[in-house]
Design goal:
rod-shaped; 176 residues; mainly alpha; 4 helices; 80% helix
Length: 176
């Protein structure tokens, strides 16, 4: 009854072992995919966290720069009102200037901490932030403001900040 030829035995073994081999291969492939997915998810979480932290620092620096600019602009407007006969204080308090510059410097330090995580665009951002900080220091030193120049440097900073943020997220930023 069990009189099988070697070819029949091979067919029977192949019919039994093939599904087992497919199941084992599927199991190992599935485990590999799961491990890689977990690694990618952890890496994505890290990138998102650092990109969010960077965005907070960038936003704070940007806000400090705008406040510093408005400190000078409103003083100039008040001075214009004084010339036209309106009553008001047109002087800027040195304490206010120092406070705003302190906030800008703090923001610059926070921004600088992210430069190493964005090797392609980090140094350019740090230079743009330094240029903006330098412009603010010139305003304080000279007592004069050039709003157009300040806004141009702020725009350059923000363009580069967008590139760093994209790099931190692992995205390519094709816009200038």
């Amino acid at each position: 009854m069990w009189d099988l030829c070697p070819l029949d035995v091979l067919k029977l073994l192949a019919s039994v072992l093939t599904p087992l081999a497919i199941a084992a291969s599927g199991y190992f492939i599935n485990r590999t995919i799961q491990r890689r997915s977990e690694i990618a998810q952890r890496q994505s979480s890290w990138r998102t966290k650092w990109a969010d932290d960077f965005l907070k620092s960038e936003s704070g620096f940007n806000e400090s720069a705008k406040k510093f600019m408005w400190l000078y602009v409103t003083a100039e407007w008040k001075a214009m009102d004084d010339l036209l006969g309106a009553v008001g204080e047109s002087k800027i308090s040195p304490d206010e200037v120092s406070q705003h510059l302190l906030e800008l410097n703090k923001g610059w330090v926070e921004i600088s901490m992210f430069v190493g995580f964005a090797p392609n665009s980090g140094e350019v951002l740090k230079k743009a932030a330094s240029d903006l900080l330098g412009e603010a220091n010139n305003w304080r030193k000279n007592g004069q403001s050039n709003v157009r120049e300040f806004l141009q440097k702020l725009l350059t900073f923000n363009k580069n900040a967008r590139k760093v943020h994209a790099e931190l997220l692992g995205l390519s930023d094709s816009k200038n």
